[in-house]
Amino acid sequence: MDKTIERAELCEKLQKIYPDLGQCGINVNATWDDDKKAWVVHLVKNGKALNTYLEDKEIEDCVEGKECVNLALQIGELKRDIDLMPPTRQ
What are the structural domain ranges in the chain? Predict the structure, then answer.
């Protein structure tokens, strides 16, 4: 399956659900992975970075206002996990 949602739509939805994520392209970014046929959300915070994969159908449903629970939970876990990571050494 090819992507049905554009990057800008995904970024806008992520920022509406989690306004504290920051601007897309700065500390949160989304890219399409052709091999996995899924979106990769990259989160960078305090020198730490994590990624999560999101199914295009989940994002499409959320953008269309049908259901955002899975998307919100997955991004919430990503935020929690990055906060639990040990600080990076300078």
Answer: 7-84
| pLDDT tens digits along 72-86 | 999 999 989 998 988
Which tokens hold the place of 85?
């990571």
Name all contacts of 41-49 with Cβ < 8 Å and 24+ positions apart.
Answer: 41/10, 41/14, 41/75, 41/78, 43/78, 43/79, 43/82, 45/82, 45/83, 46/87, 46/88, 47/87, 47/88, 47/90, 48/82, 48/85, 48/87, 48/88, 49/82
pLDDT by residue (tens digit) across 30-62? 999 999 989 999 998 888 899 999 988 888 898
Beta carbons of 27 and 15 less than 8 angstroms apart? no
What is the pLDDT at residue 2?
A: 65
